[in-house]
What does this fold into?
Amino acid sequence: MAMRIKLLVGTMTGTAELVAQEVQQTLQNDGHDAEVLMMDAVGVDVFARGGVFIVCTSTHGYGDIPDNAVEFFENLERRRPRLDSVTYGVIALGDGTYGENFCKAGDRFDELLSKLGARRAGKPLRHDANSGDVPEEVATQWVTQWVKDDLGPAGGAA
Ligand SMILES: Cc1cc2nc3c(=O)[nH]c(=O)nc-3n(C[C@H](O)[C@H](O)[C@H](O)COP(=O)(O)O)c2cc1C
It folds into this structure.
C-alpha cells in the first residue's frame, strides 16, 4: 500500500539533508509519496492533519539540536499541539565519540513527539559517523524495513 511520508530535516552541514533525499528516492522508487521538508521551512502546523513523518536530524555542539531545527523544536515545546494522529520514525545522525550526547538531538525529538501523543513506529536509526558506515546507505536500508515491518498496512495513522 502506498504511503504518504514527510521527512523533516535538521542539519548543520548537510548530511541529514542528503540522507533524507536518498530516503525520499528509495520511498518513491517503492511507489510511496515522500516529501523532504527542512525544519526551518515548516511550522508546528505541519502536523495538523496527522500522518506519517520521519524526523531526520543530526546532533551538534554537545547534544544540541541543529540551528535550522531549534525554532521548530521550541515551538513544539511551547505550543504543545496534540499529535495523536501522528506516526513517526527517527533517523538520528551522530558520532559515538560524543558519548552520552550520541544522537541526542534525535532522542530529544523522539521524547518530545511521544510526550505530545504521537506514536513512534519501530526503533530509531542511530548512525555513528565514527563507524565508517555510509549514512545514506544505512538509512535507505533502514527505511525499506521500517515501512515493511514497523509502519503497518495503514501507516498506523488515522
Ligand atoms: C562541531 C560538531 C559537534 C557535534 N556534536 C555531536 C554531538 O553532541 N553528538 C553526536 O552524536 N554527534 C555530534 N556531532 C556529529 C554530527 O552529528 C555528525 O557528523 C552528523 O553526521 C552531521 O550531520 P549534518 O551534516 O546533517 O549536520 C558533531 C559534529 C560536529 C562537527
